[in-house]
């Protein structure tokens, strides 16, 4: 059987892209090649990277060519985890001039070690019995320093508006006024009460924090306390921490990946890691059931082509790995929902903090405005039509504009 290889694409610039690809293929694997005696070359051949292609994009004023190069690496060079992968394909290389990691294609044999989402899009839809529409999520604004009773009030208000999920803010670490397990129990109780009133279930995503070696144990205690979902700052803790949570059979809840810190990796055109890989493929294979990322229209907008490719990487067929829910976020208000629907389709979670809590009628009215927009877009109606039946939506459109 032929050796399985991982294909890695970089965006870079050089006098000669082919030579650069060849140098990376050797430099990131066996170190040097032409200086080795023949016997050593034969011994190291199975570990040698290979330059696969070089596609020029533009000639720069300094005479160099900017373009995409692809290098293949033998899977035997890696252990099957993301720290090994990232170090092996981009570790030292990430510091070697203008080079950005843009894509990785894995052979099926390498992917088998990755858990992927335990629940994914289908599991979450089935839990919420919501199959034919985008889901709606609301974010606590704010959490830090508030008395527990205020948080309970906020949770109830969001739930009564008809959201499917409520998530903690990702900065909620110092939670001594409303400890993690206590929040889970209290919000579960409120969710039962609001479901009895509205007929609609609501899930709470609690921010999983703490020393990395205690995370799995803490997650299990959360499950025992009745947790529905866990929010996790993947890049701050490391992809492998997510992998180990997702792989743990006792962590029987969906995991929601927050993109905190992603801006340290992706915005440069010349350096870092592209978002479709960072927040798409890697989050998915490591086990995120839901992945938040900057939408193309909000207050921390991501380039639209990248955002669409990211969502595609979360949902396209990938071996036997389940699909992760795309959650295009930041600055979302009801008037943006038709655009979100046109761009990301049915399988997405509409997620808003300020766009719900900033509604002049409060968080319940804010959530109701979003529910009305989601109903409208899935029924092929304009927001103006829907607003004639939803005073909450009419007020939201007056405040934020948008819709069509
Ligand atoms: C891309 C992350 C979005 C996020 O974490 C967040 O809190 C958004 O809040 P709003 O909707 O922009 O208020």
Describe the SSE topology:
Elements: E1 5-14, H1 17-27, H2 38-44, E2 50-59, E3 65-74, H3 82-90, E4 99-105, H4 108-111, H5 120-128, E5 135-139, H6 148-160, E6 165-167, H7 180-198, E7 203-207, H8 215-224, E8 229-233, H9 234-237, H10 239-247, E9 255-258, E10 272-273, H11 275-286, E11 290-294, H12 304-315, E12 325-329, H13 337-344, E13 349-352, H14 354-357, H15 363-378, H16 383-387, H17 391-400
Parallel strand pairs: 4-10, 5-6, 5-13, 6-7, 7-8, 8-9, 9-11, 11-12
Antiparallel strand pairs: 1-3, 1-4, 2-3
Bound molecules: (1Z)-2-hydroxy-3-oxohex-1-EN-1-yl dihydrogen phosphate.
The site of (1Z)-2-hydroxy-3-oxohex-1-EN-1-yl dihydrogen phosphate (1AE) has 15 residues, from β11 and α14.
In short:
With 404 residues, the protein is an alpha/beta fold. It has 17 helices and 13 strands. It has two domains: 107 residues, RuBisCO large subunit, N-terminal domain (Alpha-Beta Plaits); 281 residues, TIM Barrel, CATH 3.20.20.110.
């Amino acid at each position: 059987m032929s050796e399985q290889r991982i294909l890695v694409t970089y965006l870079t610039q050089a006098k000669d892209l082919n030579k650069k690809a060849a140098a990376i293929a050797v430099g990131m694997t066996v170190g040097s090649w032409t200086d080795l005696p023949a016997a050593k070359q034969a011994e190291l051949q199975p570990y040698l990277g290979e330059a696969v292609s070089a596609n020029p994009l533009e000639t720069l004023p300094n005479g160099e060519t900017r373009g995409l190069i692809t290098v293949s690496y033998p899977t035997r060079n890696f252990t099957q985890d993301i720290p090994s992968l990232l170090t092996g394909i981009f570790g030292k290389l990430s510091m070697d001039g203008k080079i950005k990691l843009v894509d990785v294609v894995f052979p099926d044999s390498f992917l088998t070690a990755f858990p992927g989402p335990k629940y994914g899009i289908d599991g979450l839809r089935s839990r919420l019995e919501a199959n034919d529409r985008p889901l709606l999520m609301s974010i606590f604004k704010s959490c830090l320093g508030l008395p527990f009773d205020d948080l309970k009030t906020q949770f109830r208000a969001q739930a009564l508006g008809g959201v499917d999920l409520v998530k903690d803010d990702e900065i909620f670490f110092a939670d001594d006024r409303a400890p993690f397990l206590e929040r889970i129990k209290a919000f579960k109780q409120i969710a039962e009460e609001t479901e009895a009133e509205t007929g609609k279930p609501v899930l709470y995503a609690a921010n999983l924090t703490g020393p990395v070696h205690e995370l799995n144990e803490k997650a299990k205690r959360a499950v025992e306390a009745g947790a529905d979902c866990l929010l996790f700052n993947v890049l701050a803790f490391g992809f492998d921490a997510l992998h180990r949570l997702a792989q743990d059979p006792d962590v029987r809840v969906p995991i929601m990946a927050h993109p905190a810190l992603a801006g340290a990796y992706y915005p440069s055109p010349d350096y870092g890691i592209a978002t479709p890989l960072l927040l798409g493929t890697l989050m998915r294979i490591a086990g995120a059931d839901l992945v938040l990322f900057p939408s193309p229209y909000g207050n921390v907008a991501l380039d639209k082509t990248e955002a669409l490719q990211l969502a595609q990487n979360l949902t396209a067929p990938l071996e036997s790995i389940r699909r992760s829910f795309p959650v295009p976020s930041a600055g979302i208000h009801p008037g943006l929902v038709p655009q979100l629907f046109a761009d990301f389709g049915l399988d997405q979670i509409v997620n808003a903090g300020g766009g719900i809590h900033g509604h002049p009628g409060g968080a319940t009215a804010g959530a109701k405005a979003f529910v009305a927009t989601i109903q409208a877009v899935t029924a092929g109606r304009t927001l103006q039509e829907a607003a004639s039946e939803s005073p909450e939506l009419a007020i939201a459109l007056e405040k934020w504009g948008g819709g069509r």
